[in-house]
Every structure is written in structure tokens, then in C-alpha cells.
Design a protein that fits this description.
- The chain has 445 residues and is of the alpha/beta class.
- It folds into two domains: 286 residues, FAD/NAD(P)-binding domain, CATH 3.50.50; 140 residues, Elongation Factor Tu (Ef-tu), domain 3 (Beta Barrel).
- It has 13 helices and 16 strands.
- β4 and β5 form a beta hairpin.
- The chain starts with a strand and ends in an 8-residue tail after the last helix.
Length: 445
């Protein structure tokens, strides 16, 4: 017996989830607290209001953002259709007229008879019933407290400290050494070594780098455990050498001795396609991060898959709490989607909203929730937020995130050709999965 599904949050993830559920002939109650309760960031009561930018990243075939968008298009994403309809010239990126985008989305949702939009704040997680929680990074204080009660306060983060991630293919491996400090843990880290002169030049550039502007609602409360690396450096010239750049337990292969300073890079995935600059969370402008961090030996040509940031961003510790279907492990009728579940970016929020909505509909109709194959961008993203890992941080889609790529493809040195084949395999896998797994009647209209 199909039941009404509750969706909390009228942003990108919530709107997409509600639409996917309704398109499968299941009634939805969609809660959006605006305009009854506004956030410091939003200026309208429109659904899917884009706050920070009007860009949905690259729409160039062969890129990871395009792949994710193309998968969403093929899966019948409402928001991707509206984005394509409201796009504005932006070179190879997909950018939209944000006011028109929100207006069209609001009209589409309002025109769907199976979706009842309720303009009110949800202060507590529903005690029962199938629910998709997509309240976003600016979740209200009351609902955040309820989520913290459900997840455990240690599993709900309010201020995010993000270190940069670089593409493995762009690193000069001849300048890097694979090792852990004192040999503990095997060769799990890559290490970049700096001489005294190299370190002092890097230090000077770091403390002089221009910070990104902060809006009032983004102003973080710095904690000692996640200070921006440039703020830490300002405490003294040797502070980094006793912190994230301490060289103890490491030998510089260039000299055979301990280096003056060292940066460690930690892999982001099993295939080591992306590496995190450990302890380098920061709030510098992206252009400054590129300039300063490329001063580190081995990173001279580093391509950044994600830049460091520090900002308000409520999200749950998904690996501890969620399955790859985006269901809570301890309460399978509860789904989390959007930035709250640990993804970064507009398209990533749409993707998790679509998957959560699809699986909520399947559960409501007595079917088993599913996750797209690991070769797909959507499937990889869902698996990332559910995969066991230490120091979980939200992620954008990158080719380095794809959970399944053959050794033959990974061995291809030409990046464009490698990405082309990864894209081809992902779309083939998505088509096969949709044909086999999604034979579910869709409402007409």
C-alpha cells in the first residue's frame, strides 16, 4: 500500500526528490520553511534558489561534471531539464538565469497535483513514515538539533574545514616519495619535501596570500583543530613545521636526510586518482591557492579537483550513518540528500535528491531501494558518502571519485582519452541499469 512521502527542504535536492516521487504516482508533502523563516543567505521564497553562483560547472563532454549532468538527464531529472531551458551563455559551462530557473522550478512543482507544498518550518524529524531530509547546509537550528539527537552530536558538523584535492595525474611523482612517518602504515602517503629556502619562500607567500571574501552568514567560528593553514602559519614561522608540515619520521630521498619541512598527501579513493593536501584547509582565494601551493616541489603543475574552503556547511557524518541507497542504517525509511548528506555542488545535490526520491518511491511501493552501478558518476557519489573512511569530508564529482575503472583504462596516459573511455563506460552502465532496474510505471504528464 503506497503511502504519502515527506520531503523536508525545497532546495535542489528536495525539489528533485519530490518530483521523482510524484512521477512514480506517489503523493508527496514537500516542506519549505521560506518565507515563514528565512535564512541569512536566501532572498526569495522560490524553490531551488541558487545562492552562491549561477554556474552548474562544465557542460563539456569528457568532463566529470558533464558526465554527472548527462546521467541525470538520462534519468529524467526535472532540474536538469529546467537548467537546460534557462541556460545563459557561459562558454563551456552550464550557467542559468537563476531567477528564471527558480521561478520555472517553483511553477513545475506547484503544477504537479501529487505534490503538496507546505510553507512551514519542520522542527523535528518525523517519528515515522518515509521521509527525505534535504534541508541543506543552512538547516534551521531547531531541525539541526533534532538531526543531532538522531545522529549523535559527534556526527553532525556545522563548520566545514576542507583541504584542497589534486589530480594524481598532474603530480610530478619523481619529486614525491611514498611513505608514512616512521614507516608506520606502509607507503600510504605521498610526501613533498622542502628545503629551508623552499619552505621560507612558501611560508612568506602563504601568510601574504589574499583571503576569499566572507559573507556574514559564512563567517566561521574557528576551532583549534581546524584552523586555516594560513592562520596557523601567522602564529610563527615554525608553526607549520610542528604541525601539518612536520618532517619528523620522514627521509628526503633527494638528500638521504630528514627534510626541513614536508607536506603529506593522502589518497581520496582506492584507485589513488586524487590526493588530499593533509592539514591544508584554508580560506584563500582559489587563484591564490593555485599560486601558493604550486610552490611546493612536485606540485608545480598540480590540477586542483577541489580547492580548500572554510565555511558554514551543516552535514552529517554519512559513512557512519547512511547506506549507499541514502537510507539511514538504523532507520531505513529515513533518507538524507543534498549537501546535508555530504556532497558539495549544485549538480551533486540534484543527483542525491534524485536517488533519494527514486528510492523513497521504491520503498513506498514495496520494492527494494537501489544504487546505480559503481562505474557511474551517480553510483560513485552515493557510494562515496556511504563508504567507510576516516575524516569524512564532502566531495564534488571527479573522475578520481569513480569507484570502478578498469586497469586498462587507468593505464592510459592520455588524460582526455582516459576520461572519454570512463565516460563511455559510465553511460553504458547507467543505460544497462535503468533498463534492468527501473521498470517502474511513471505518471503521465
Amino acid at each position: 500500500m503506497e503511502q504519502i512521502v515527506t520531503v523536508i527542504g525545497g532546495g535542489l535536492a528536495g525539489a528533485e526528490a519530490a518530483w521523482q516521487i510524484a512521477r512514480r504516482a506517489i503523493p508527496v508533502r514537500l516542506y519549505e520553511m521560506r518565507p515563514a523563516l528565512m535564512t541569512p543567505a536566501h532572498t526569495t521564497d522560490g524553490l531551488g534558489e541558487l545562492v552562491c553562483s549561477n554556474s552548474l560547472k562544465s557542460d563539456q563532454p569528457g568532463t566529470a561534471p558533464w558526465l554527472l549532468k548527462e546521467e541525470l538527464r538520462r534519468m529524467g531529472s526535472l532540474l536538469m531539464r529546467i537548467a537546460d531551458e534557462t541556460r545563459v551563455p557561459a562558454g563551456q559551462a552550464l550557467a542559468v538565469d537563476r531567477k528564471l530557473f527558480s521561478r520555472r522550478l517553483t511553477e513545475e512543482i506547484a503544477g504537479e497535483p501529487l505534490i503538496n507544498v507546505v510553507r512551514d518550518e519542520v522542527k523535528e524529524l518525523p517519528a515515522d513514515g518515509i521521509t527525505v531530509v534535504a534541508s541543506g547546509p543552512l538547516t534551521s537550528d531547531a531541525l539541526a538539533a533534532s538531526i543531532a539527537l538522531f545522529t549523535g552530536t559527534e556526527n553532525l558538523y556545522f563548520y566545514d574545514a576542507i583541504s584542497p584535492i589534486v589530480d594524481a595525474a598532474s603530480l610530478d611523482m619523481s619529486m614525491l616519495s611514498a611513505a608514512s612517518r616512521y614507516g608506520k602504515g606502509g607507503e600510504d602517503y605521498l610526501n613533498a619535501f622542502l628545503s629551508k629556502d623552499e619552505y621560507l619562500a612558501f611560508y612568506d607567500a602563504l601568510i601574504r596570500a589574499e583571503s576569499a571574501p566572507l559573507r556574514e552568514f559564512d563567517r566561521p567560528r574557528y576551532f583549534e583543530g581546524c584552523l586555516p593553514v594560513e592562520e596557523l602559519a601567522r602564529r610563527g614561522v615554525d608553526t607549520l613545521r610542528f604541525g601539518p608540515m612536520k618532517p619528523v619520521g620522514l627521509t628526503d630521498p633527494r638528500t638521504g636526510r630528514r627534510a626541513y619541512a614536508a607536506l603529506q598527501l593522502r589518497r581520496e579513493n582506492l584507485i589513488a586518482g586524487a590526493w588530499n593536501l593533509v592539514g591544508f584547509q584554508n580560506h584563500m582565494k582559489f587563484s591564490e591557492q593555485r599560486r601558493v601551493f604550486r610552490m611546493i616541489p612536485g606540485l608545480e603543475n598540480a590540477e586542483f579537483l577541489r580547492f580548500g574552503q572554510m565555511h558554514r556547511n551543516s552535514y552529517i557524518n554519512s559513512p557512519q550513518l547512511l547506506q549507499a541507497t541514502l537510507q539511514a542504517k538504523t532507520r531505513p525509511e529515513l533518507f538524507f540528500a543534498g549537501q546535508l548528506c555530504g556532497v558539495e555542488g549544485y549538480i551533486e545535490a540534484m543527483a542525491t535528491g534524485l536517488l533519494a526520491g527514486l528510492n523513497a518511491a521504491l520503498l513506498s511501493s514495496g520494492q527494494t531501494p537501489r544504487t546505480p552501478p559503481p562505474a557511474t558518476a551517480c553510483g560513485s557519489l552515493a557510494r562515496y558518502v556511504a563508504a567507510e573512511q576516516k575524516n569524512f569530508q564532502p566531495a564534488n564529482i571527479t573522475f578520481g571519485l569513480l569507484a570502478e575503472t578498469s586497469a586498462e583504462i587507468l593505464a592510459i596516459r592520455d588524460k582526455k582519452e582516459r576520461h572519454r573511455l570512463q565516460t563511455q563506460r559510465a553511460l553504458e552502465a547507467m543505460t544497462e541499469w535503468m533498463d534492468a532496474a527501473l521498470r517502474r510505471p511513471v505518471a503521465s504528464g
